[in-house]
Amino acid sequence: MSQGGDSLVVLTINHETAPLAVRETYAVADEDAVRLYELASSTNAAEELLVLNTCNRFELYARLREASETDTLVAAIADFHGKPASELEQVLHLRSGREAIQHLIEVSAGLRSQITGEVEIFGQVKVAYATSKENGYTGKALNRIFQKGFQAAKLIRNSTQIGEGQINISNVAVELAGKIFGSLANAATLSLGTGEIGEKTVKALRSRGARRFGIASRQRERAESIVGQWGGRPHTIADLETYLPEYDIVIASVGTEQAILNERLVERGLGRRDDRPLFLIDLGLPRNIEQACGELDNVFLYNLDDLAAIADENLQERRNAMPQCQRIAAQKAQLIWESLQKRGLT
Amino acid sequence: MPSETEIYLLGLRDKQWIWLATVVFASTFLLASYSALKLRRKTGRPYIVSLVSIGWILQTLGLYARGLQYGGCPLANKFELVQFMVWSTIAIYIFIGPAFRVSLLGLFTSGFACVFSILSMTVSSWDSASRAAIFGDSPWIEAHAALALFSYGVFGLLSLTSAMYLMQSRSLKRKEVVGGLFPFMPSLVELVSINRRLLTMGWIILTVSLGIGYKYFALDTDSVMTIKLAATIVIWLAYGIIFILRARRIFSSKRFSWACIAVFIAALLSLSVVTRNEKREASSAESASVSNYCDPRAS
Q1: Which residues of A fall below an 8 Å CB-CB distance to B?
Q2: Is A8-162+321-342 in CATH node 3.30.460.30?
Q3: Which CATH entry fits the domain spanning A169-311: 3.90.230.10, 3.40.50.300, 3.40.50.720, 3.20.20.80?
Q4: DSSP assignments along A292-335, one per residue
Q5: Where exactly does CATH 3.30.460.30 map onto chain A?
Q6: Among A113-117, B23-27, B271-275, B294-298, which is the least confidently predicted range?
Q7: What are phi and psi of A94, to 5 degrees?
Q8: Whole-number pLDDT of residue B275
């Protein structure tokens, strides 16, 4: 593999370049990473090394002793996986010099993630750096590249739309609940139905501070059983009218042919509660909540299509921000690269 | 009568200070709008509060210079009334606003200040040349006027937070929740709470103001025009009714917000009644004993 004479390289297999089957083949379990470090280090091809391994990417950052040592590293990785180097070379992508730094910044900022702008990758890169540093595999060059790269990634995340807006349905619903109620600590949530999507939404609400939950099912036993797992108070759907006014957020995901929440029921419920808003989240197919409920004053009704449309819009906003993010990444990579050249670390 | 020779404060006349303040308010509004709508990120609250505070200090200097020039509180014509109301709104935003933790309040308040300040500066008839003391000679009546206008400042801020509530509610109803100002808006429940507090504060201040005014009026019924008195009481009653209807949950948050905006517009229109002073001119000729209360030169 050729890297154009630069000693700084990144060898990568990721979702952009390889299908899932290939990524599975070359994935490195956390407990095996130490062995890969040792193997790559024993070749004496690199002065500094860093392995980044996530569900969607395997990457090896290295500062080579000689620019021509890339093949030695590739052979070490192939050896680690018990595969021929020629096979690995088919799927392994190489970036070097300034491009390798830009790649790192883009990966850290979530620009190269499968879910554009996701934030978890930043933590994963940080952990990978910390591990490599603790074990003495990083030196002046990689320390500088990663530390400055993290700053650049933070700048991108803070100054652009790349991480703004939620892009999965449960989180969109939770974000909307926040826009209606502010703190969710005082907002009582009722889950009508005990399906998976309802459970996810309840969990997402709980993670954002919601404390009071009610779980309603057709059978009381089922509600009581789910309450044991999710927490909250059990209810039966048949008694909905009696307890509906106690709740601020209603998540409906019941398998039913007929709407279980209709305008009359909601209107009566509104009359028995103070002026707090009512947020209805209809995750059912067919729909569980009559569309007319959304016309009532102080009632906000969102169904699956509404939430999906918002998630799509948010994702599009993130994608729209990509060119700006890439410009920042390129500028910062150039600055870091120049600073490395000045210090004779390239 | 106080001297009307032009007074320079730190080298500038009253209106020059107020123009400077208006430029700062306008710049703050443009910066905050550009930041939110174009850059898609909110300008930090400390920056906006600092900028608005600079504008407010400049405006204070302008009003102080005017007070020096005319020898009394600058509350003698529509220009001064509007400026004092804007000054009050900004003061509440600076000193109480941070407790609300609403990042967009600075944008709305600076926009409000900018619009009303430009309006009062450009409509020349509002700053009438024949400038009679419309609020009389008693220090108590000046206190009454100042408090009343301060309460209008609170109601001004209330109308802004009410507008925010309506915008937020509309966005959520129409499911237009991506982009625009929506990401920076506070929650509906927070806005409802802020509105309730502002209405309570404004109404109490207006009640105290009217209490002081009533004492003066009871002593000298000729000194207050009936229409002026009626307009003020109607505004006070209107806010009182909103307060009660809201407390008894008869008004929804949406109706409450619309009502607050409508009554504030009525309150602004009532200022033209307040500045009518036929009766006062007649009586003010007789009472030449000008109080030093609120006269910056007396302090």
Answers
A1: 158-161, 164-165, 176, 178-182, 274-277, 294, 297-298, 300, 302, 306, 309-310, 313-314, 317
A2: yes
A3: 3.40.50.720
A4: GGGGSTTEEEEEHHHHHHHHHHHHHHHHHTHHHHHHHHHHHHHH
A5: 8-162+321-342
A6: B294-298
A7: -120, 135
A8: 65
Average of pLDDT values for A306-326?
92
Give the pLDDT confidence score for residue B274 in this predicted structure: 67
Cβ pairs bridging A and B (under 8 Å): 58
Contacts of B256 (CB under 8 A, 6+ apart): B162, B195, B242, B245, B246
Parts of chain B belonging to CATH 1.20.120: 1-125
Indicate whether this complex's ipTM tops 0.90: no
Chain B residues lying within 8 Å of A180, measured CB to CB: 172, 187-189
pTM of the full structure:
0.79
Picking from A161, A181, A306, the nearest residue to B189 by CB comes out as: A181
- Could you list the active site residues of A? 55
Q: In the predicted model, is pLDDT for residue A220 greater than 70?
A: yes
What is the per-residue pLDDT across B210-245, written as a single tens digit (0 to 9) for each? 888 877 766 666 666 677 778 888 999 999 999 999
- CB spacing of A298 vs B253 below 8 angstroms: yes
Fold that domain B1-125 belongs to in CATH: Four Helix Bundle (Hemerythrin (Met), subunit A) (1.20.120)
Contact A75, A89 (CB under 8 A): no
Interchain CB distance below 8 Å, A274 and B41: no
Name the residue among B227, B79, B62 with its Cα closest to residue B149: B79
Residue A329 has pLDDT above 80, yes or no: yes
